[in-house]
Amino acid sequence: MSELTQLYDQIRVCQKCDLSKGRTNAVPGEGPENSEIMMIGEAPGFYEDREGRPFVGASGKFLDELLAGIQLKRDQIYICNVIKCRPPQNRDPQPEEMDACKPYLDRQIDLIKPKIIITISRFAMARWFADKKIGEIHGKPKKIGNLVVLPMYHPAAALHQPSLKKVLQEDFGKIPQILKEMANLQEEQEQKKPEPPQQLSMF
Ligand code: URA
Question: Which ligand 1 atom is at minimum distance from the Cα of 59?
């Protein structure tokens, strides 16, 4: 069993906060373990809680459209949420719930090792951009070590405010170029690495 699968098993039986009492299913996340792209949403909603899978409701459908716009399919990206259980009436996650869930998200990032993390919720964004506003930084990639973090509006925001649809499409449009630039950078860095010392064949 992979470490990620073990983590999912832990999440499914987690009782670290009271959200476990009201859930139908915890929603650990899903996607390929070697995905270059990781998306982090807020929390499961009604349909996600029912199915135990992230982004299966209306915002998930729009997310699929956004991905299709850059020739990507859902099963090519890793997707999860800041908290793994649905808050009652979809209220905002509370600080103690996010604290309880943080080790799970930390481990997911550790195991997946994505090249790019796309935050699609303000609670995910806050991890890297504590006091910034989404209106100012959406679509602007930030390099943090070997990782690029790209904040975006939540797809559900465009369902309530149609003018955001175009903004999201444009921001998603930046993903292929960012990945290309990161691949070029990695190639350059690898070329600069000094050759390992030659072995002497006599010994
Ligand atoms: N919204 C989220 O942030 N996450 C989901 O899984 C579904 C809707």
Answer: 8
**Centroid of ligand 1 to alpha carbon of 54 (angstroms):** 6
**Does any ligand 1 atom lie closer than 6 A to the CB of residue 48?**
yes
Query: Residue 139 corresponds to which tokens in the numbers above?
Result: 């679509």
Angle between helical axes of 95-112 and 3-12 (0-180°, round to 10): 160
Full-model pTM: 0.93
Q: How confident is the model at residue 193 (pLDDT cuts 50, 70, 90)?
A: confident
Quote the ligand 1 centre to 63 CA distance (angstroms): 10
d(CA 69, CA 63): 10
Q: How many CB atoms lie within 10 A of CB 189?
A: 10
Q: What is the pLDDT of residues 11-38, one digit of tens each?
A: 999 999 999 999 999 999 999 999 999 9
